[in-house]
Design a protein that fits this description.
Strand content: 15-25%
Number of domains: 1
Distance between the termini: 10 Å
InterPro entries: Cytidylate_kin (IPR003136), Cytidylate_kinase_dom (IPR011994), P-loop_NTPase (IPR027417)
CATH superfamily: P-loop containing nucleotide triphosphate hydrolases
CATH architecture: 3-Layer(aba) Sandwich
EC number: 2.7.4.25
Strand order of the largest sheet: 2-6-1-7-8
Catalytic activity: dCMP + ATP = dCDP + ADP; CMP + ATP = CDP + ADP
Subcellular location: Cytoplasm
Shape: globular
Radius of gyration: 16 Å
Protein name: Cytidylate kinase
């Protein structure tokens, strides 16, 4: 492998992006960036602001003035918001319900994309980055670009298992289906772009998905 190894993994909610990306990063000794965690931290900014969803310019100004810092250790992923640890808070249902408010704000997306590129550079491009439009917008020059998909039933079941009893079936379906529908208005993550490898994890276990993607890394097969 070369000194630089940037892996970009996109996919819909519940496709296994986070678990897979952490596993790949651990296997290859790379840093890890969950870009969704920054969007979730931005959603907390919105929730605590009292702003209306229609106040898009004010929301963008609020988010872009915040200090949102992710940890990049795949064994201990974390998220800080203005010096406060929100690692657990960003997974709460109230946050999941509002993520699309900031994720569909184009000014917020542009600002966060720049933050992602800065983090990639700081990691000397030895990092696994996962999200929505990483393979096409944030890091189209990645050494390996993957679109990880799964059928809706599998994705809903995985998200339900991940969240345990903290949410009901309707909330899980909303997180998976509605969020994907909303985010698809500003991001293309349902079909692989040219040069992006498609991996369908519907009938694959986590270890198998990790092994498949590691096998795609140049010089690692």
């Amino acid at each position: 492998m070369t000194d630089s190894l940037l892996i970009a993994i996109d996919g819909p909610s519940g496709s296994g992006k986070s678990s897979t990306s952490r596993g790949v990063a651990q296997r290859l000794g790379l840093a890890y960036l969950d870009t969704g965690s920054l969007y979730r931290a931005a959603a907390i900014c919105f929730l605590e602001s009292g702003l209306d969803v229609a106040q898009t310019e004010q929301i963008a100004a609020l988010v872009t003035s915040a200090a949102i810092t992710p940890g990049t250790d795949p064994l201990h992923p974390s998220t800080m918001l203005d010096g406060r640890d929100v690692t657990a808070e960003i997974r709460e249902p109230r946050v999941s319900e509002k993520v699309s408010v900031v994720a569909t704000n184009l000014a917020v997306r542009e600002w966060l994309n720049e933050q992602f590129r800065t983090i990639i550079a700081a990691a000397d491009r030895r990092i696994v980055v996962e999200g929505r439009d990483i393979t096409t917008v944030v890091a189209p020059d990645a050494d390996l670009r993957v679109l990880l998909v799964a059928d809706p039933a599998a994705r809903i079941a995985r998200r339900q298992a991940e969240l345990g009893g903290s949410v009901n079936a309707d909330q899980v379906t909303d997180q998976v289906v509605r969020r994907d529908r909303d985010d698809a208005t500003v991001s293309q993550f349902e079909e692989p772009a040219e040069g992006v490898e498609l991996v369908d994890s519907t009938h694959m276990g986590l270890d198998e998905v990790i092994e498949t993607i590691c096998g795609m890394v140049p010089g690692h097969a």
